[in-house]
Specification:
alpha/beta; 9 strands; two-stranded antiparallel sheet; 9 helices; 7-stranded mixed β-sheet; Spore Coat Polysaccharide Biosynthesis Protein SpsA, Chain A; globular; 2 domains
Length: 307
């Protein structure tokens, strides 16, 4: 089945996107890739294009966070299937046959189990299912179904669907414009009660209440086999900047991708960061132990200075 992987990024995430696409080629995954890029340099362009079968589309500036460009990036694909992938991620093993769901009526996406969903809504005393006050707001804003299709939410870091669902993708873009603030305060926006996860909240509101929404796949195929995984780096800092403790378990696999790139003598987005040097395992391990407390300390200092 022909399938395009799409991603959106700016210059700050060029190493993330580069490593994700390189992991495809390292694992002999041939899918074409479309990059919706913002503020990329000529060096960024050259490095990404050298990874084979990559098209870079320069995006128009937006006041919203980059994460809200997901549906716009997906609409650039012309293949039967479209797969969105967050650029702060990579693949372990050849996952080509696990990206898609064979039933065209379904979207392949990871549905959160109740303990994880409870953590998402812990500020509302989450008990597992999506809180009724959130569902009520979504129901009113979507204005279609009365009963929610889903008891928990989906993660928007990966999704794959057939192009028959492009009307749903367009609706997602329209709903983002309708319900999210136009400014950018980050991926999480606590000012928006029902949509604090920004684009992901909007996506889940539509999966729950929009008539045009595809059915969510009964399970997720990219977290079952340790030899064929999609790994998403949620925490900050990102691994090309400095490792954090939990993601560090993937240090060997992630840096092996860059070792392959170097062996192929492919152009790079810039000098190799210390965090991506496979020969600096111990240094990066020690740095990972302090990275999160250091980030939190600097965040606290910044907030204190703003008062």
């Amino acid at each position: 089945m022909n399938n395009t992987i799409v991603v959106a990024m700016d210059h700050n995430y060029v190493w993330g996107a580069y490593m994700m696409i390189a992991s495809l080629r390292y694992n002999q995954m041939p899918e074409p890739v479309i990059v919706l890029g913002f503020g990329l340099t000529e060096t960024d362009h050259q490095a990404l294009l050298a990874l084979n079968n990559v098209r870079v589309v320069d995006g128009e500036s937006s006041t919203r966070n980059l994460t809200c460009c997901k549906p716009d990036a997906m609409l650039l694909a012309e293949t039967d299937y479209i797969t969105w992938v967050d650029c702060d991620s990579f693949f372990i093993g050849n996952c080509s046959d696990r990206l898609l769901w064979p039933d065209h009526d379904m979207i392949h996406i990871r549905l959160r189990e109740e303990p994880e969903n409870a953590a998402v809504y812990r500020h509302l005393g989450g008990q597992g299912k999506t809180p009724s006050v959130i569902l009520d707001a979504w129901r009113q804003d979507v204005g279609e179904r009365s009963e929610a299709r889903l008891a928990t939410g989906c993660s928007a870091c990966f999704m794959s669907l057939h192009r028959k669902h492009l009307p749903f993708v367009r609706r997602w873009s329209e709903q983002i414009a309708k319900v999210l603030p136009e400014d950018n305060v980050g991926v999480v926006d606590r000012r928006s009660f029902a949509y604090f996860q920004t684009d992901e909240s909007v996506l889940n509101s539509l999966l729950c209440f929009a008539e045009v929404a595809p059915t969510v796949s009964p399970y997720y195929k990219l977290d079952k086999d340790p030899t064929a995984l999609f790994v998403h780096f949620i925490s900050r800092p990102k691994p090309w900047e400095c490792w954090t403790p939990r993601p560090f378990r993937y240090f060997r696999q992630y840096t092996a991708v860059l070792d392959w790139v170097l062996a192929q003598k492919l152009p790079l987005p810039g000098p190799v960061p210390l965090a991506l040097r496979s020969d600096r395992y111990l240094t990066n391990y020690l740095r990972s132990r302090f990275s999160v407390p250091r980030r939190k300390f600097h965040t606290l200092l910044r907030r204190l200075r703003q008062k």
